[in-house]
Amino acid sequence: MSTPTRRRGEALESAILIAALDQLAEVGCRRLTMEGVAAAAHTGKAALYRRWSSREELIADALQHVLPVPAEVPVHDNIRDDLMELMRCYRDAVKATRGTAFQILKEDGEQSSSLMRDVIRERVTTPLKERLLDALERGVKRGDVRPSAAMPMCAEIGPAMVMYRCTLGSPDVPDEFLTELVDNVLLPAVTP
Fold first, then answer.
1. 28: phi > 0 → left, psi -120 to 50 → alpha, else beta; which?
2. What confidence tens digit (pLDDT) does each residue in 39-60 have?
3. How many whole angstroms separate alpha carbon 99 and alpha carbon 167?
4. Looking at domain 67-190, does it have CATH number 1.10.357.10?
5. Sign of the torsion angle spanned by Cα atoms 163, 169, 172, 174
6. Residue 97 has what DSSP assignment?
7. Where, residue-wise, is CATH 1.10.10.60 in the chain?
């Protein structure tokens, strides 16, 4: 019987970050403990405290570990395809965190660590809102979006609906939901 190889460096850190997300999904932000994460990662607490001084720092790094880096999403020649692409991007960010990013905001609201909220804003909500607004402005130039709809409030409708679904219902956001959202809510709200 061979003894397991001790994980070090990036392998250990990755295991800890994944364990933190698993624990976050399982027990929630308020009940997540360094001890629980260490046990789930099959390591000692000292390995965590060498890297993170608090659970908030650990959770923020775990979110950064899985959230996509804001990147340019493909631009299409019509507003429907742009909206579908951006809503899928948002859904993928939800999937990457197993829905926990929004659970953090739901559970703790303003009491959640500003560090965790900042990660979510920096990596998900702000870039998406900016890209949605850009898509609406391109749609105005093409003539498939009303000029008065190219505003921040309209850019927030889709993400708000996805967040609402994830925080009050299921973190699962199927393509059918996104299609209904785009076709029955967003397009009627922004098209001439």
1. left
2. 999 999 999 999 999 988 998 8
3. 8
4. yes
5. negative
6. T
7. 9-55
Alpha-carbon gap, residue 141 to 136, rounded angstroms? 9
Q: Residue 103's Cα: distance from chain center in Å?
A: 10
CB 161 within 8 A of CB 181: yes
Q: What is the pTM for the complete model shown?
A: 0.76
Kindly report, residue by residue over 8-21, the tens digit of the pLDDT.
778 899 999 999 98
Judge contact between 102 and 163, C-beta under 8 A: yes
CB atoms within 10 A of CB 153: 9
Torsion of CA 152, 90, 70, 113, to 10 degrees: 80
CATH class of the domain defined by 9-55: mainly alpha
Look at the block and give the residue holding tokens 């965190």.
97
Cα–Cα distance measured from residue 17 to residue 119, given in angstroms and rounded to the nearest whole number: 15
Q: Which residues, other chains included, contact 180 with Cβ-Cβ below 8 Å and sequence gap of 6+? A: none
